[in-house]
Backbone:
């Protein structure tokens, strides 16, 4: 296997003592190992772990409670009823929760670049992206996913949808491609932190901000904002566009109906973009950041 | 007293050092401000005068929330991470030997942090919000200092709560769980997600009586001119009362902890 890294970054020794696997497989294996390590270390403090799971469950639950409280005063928000909003909410929260659990610690990259601990990751013979993604893997984020799924379940029970096989297939598709799109945003954010180390919070606007935005119907937001999350940061494909198809609702911005089926393509496109910049690009950009210190 | 002023000044400068982080934070606060503002517009469109606010007052509430989120540390963050870490590693033993009061030391630092966050993270989002939306700014000049006093009391209440949580690390070792739960309570019961006036029935009454309402609901109502005259005094008394009770509770817990608990490390 070729280790196509820039000179200056340490390279795996020629006589590599372990059997070599394709890079992707190796990355996934490393991710699994690091993840298992963090899960074990979290379990050392059980009481605290239980509280953090509960906390993660509650943090998103409060988001939904806020919507419920709003609906004690109104019957529809932006023309959408409570079950309809619950569907948007459940999809967005589940997709985001899944991604947040798998890649959620990426906002620590900036800190690692700053305090120099990224060097440790760069010299290990393991893909950096896998190490960064699994860093401080937090099992507690199951709480968030559970909450999202519960709301999604409520929405599916409460809604009166004319189900077709296609619409049924759309549900898992939305959650998976939604998680992938959010994932690409996380990786892009991590790459951005090499340039602006202290600015990790900007990432939160697109990740946490994005999921909050998607929990409400597109009709209540300004056109330009909806355009932005459709064409610039393609968050609208996480839940809005496909969910509107399931709900038989009108599309924002006069978009044609087939955009509802684009999420998997959008997700792949996002990752292809990231692959060139985030995955392999991590090397050179990281090296430059390290040299600066 | 001079010592604590120096500590506060140091904390202010410490947070002021990270300018990129501050700019990034302002950006995030602004994005969230916009998202929430649109949801509130949709809500108040259907029900004008909801909770006694008109639309522009509701929007002002949103942007005040973004301005005070960091200042009053509604979601936690700030000193308690550091303090629990010191408890966990055992460094706290050194702190207890120092000829300063542990609680006042951290309070001074937190006030310095809050002062910076009010200027650095509060003013800019509020200004940007005022550019994009029609906000209800105070008519009377006196409302501004009245608001600042209320924010100060809010910060002290917030500190007192987080100090109590940090003390729990003496028993739990890992403070993360307790901190998380309290930060959630802070987010919800401060009125950050929705004004407490909109909470129905008993939940509303309980929420308005809990200490967290001092963090946003009370200062925002002072800003919007809902508390004047004796009402203002009552609002201050509410905040001050909680501050004193919680600070004393923190002190009590600290005494118990230092007597009973064997310090880690060594």
Residues:
């Amino acid at each position: 296997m070729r280790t196509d890294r820039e000179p200056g970054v340490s390279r795996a020794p020629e006589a590599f003592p372990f059997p070599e696997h394709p890079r992707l497989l190796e990355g996934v294996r490393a991710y699994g190992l690091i993840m298992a390590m963090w899960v074990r270390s979290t379990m050392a403090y059980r009481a605290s772990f239980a509280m953090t799971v509960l906390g993660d469950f509650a943090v998103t639950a409060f988001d939904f409670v806020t919507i419920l409280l709003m609906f004690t005063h109104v019957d529809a928000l932006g023309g959408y009823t409570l079950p309809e909003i619950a569907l948007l909410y459940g999809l967005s929260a589940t997709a985001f929760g899944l991604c947040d659990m798998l890649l959620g610690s990426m906002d620590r990259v900036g800190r690692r670049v700053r305090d120099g601990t990224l060097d440790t990751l760069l010299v290990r013979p393991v893909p950096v992206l896998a190490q960064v993604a699994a860093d401080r893997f937090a099992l507690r984020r199951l709480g968030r996913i559970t909450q999202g799924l519960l709301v999604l379940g409520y929405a599916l029970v409460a809604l009166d949808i004319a189900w077709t096989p296609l619409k049924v297939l759309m549900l898992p598709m939305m959650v998976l491609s939604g998680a992938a799109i959010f994932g690409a945003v996380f990786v892009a954010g991590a790459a951005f932190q090499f340039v602006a180390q202290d600015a990790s919070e900007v990432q939160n606007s697109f990740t946490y901000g994005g999921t909050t935005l998607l929990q409400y119907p597109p009709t209540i937001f300004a056109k330009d904002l909806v355009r932005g999350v459709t064409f610039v940061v393609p968050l609208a494909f996480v839940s809005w566009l496909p969910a509107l198809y399931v709900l038989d609702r009108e599309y924002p911005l006069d978009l044609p109906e087939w955009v509802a089926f684009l999420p998997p393509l959008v997700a792949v496109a996002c990752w292809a973009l990231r692959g060139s910049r985030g995955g392999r690009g991590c090397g050179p950009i990281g090296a430059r950041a390290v040299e600066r210190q | 007293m001079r010592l604590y002023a120096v500590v506060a000044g140091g904390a202010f400068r410490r947070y002021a050092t990270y300018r990129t982080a501050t700019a990034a934070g302002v950006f995030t606060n602004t994005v969230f401000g916009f998202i929430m503002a649109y949801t509130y517009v949709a809500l108040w469109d259907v029900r004008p005068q909801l909770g006694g606010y008109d639309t522009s007052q509701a929007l002002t509430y949103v942007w005040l929330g973004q301005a005070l989120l960091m200042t009053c540390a509604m979601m936690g963050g700030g000193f308690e991470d550091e303090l629990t870490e010191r408890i966990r590693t055992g460094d706290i033993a050194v702190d207890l030997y120092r000829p300063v009061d542990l609680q006042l030391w951290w309070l001074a630092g937190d006030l310095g942090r809050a002062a910076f966050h009010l200027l650095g993270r509060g003013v800019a989002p509020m200004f940007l919000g005022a550019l994009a939306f029609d906000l209800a700014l105070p008519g009377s000049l006196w409302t501004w200092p009245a608001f600042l006093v209320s924010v100060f009391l809010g910060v002290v209440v917030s500190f007192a709560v987080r100090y109590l949580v940090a003390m729990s690390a003496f028993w739990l070792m890992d403070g993360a769980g307790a901190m998380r739960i309290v930060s959630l309570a802070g987010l919800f019961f401060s009125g950050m997600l929705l004004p407490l006036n909109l909470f129905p029935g008993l939940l509303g009454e309980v929420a308005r009586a809990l200490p967290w309402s001092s963090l946003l609901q009370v200062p925002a109502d002072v800003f919007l001119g809902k508390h004047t005259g004796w009402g203002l005094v009552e609002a201050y008394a509410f905040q001050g009362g909680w501050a004193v009770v919680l600070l004393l509770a923190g002190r009590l817990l600290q005494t118990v902890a230092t007597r009973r608990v064997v310090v880690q490390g060594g």
Q: What stands out?
A: Confidence is low (pLDDT under 50) at residues 1-10, 275-293 of chain A.
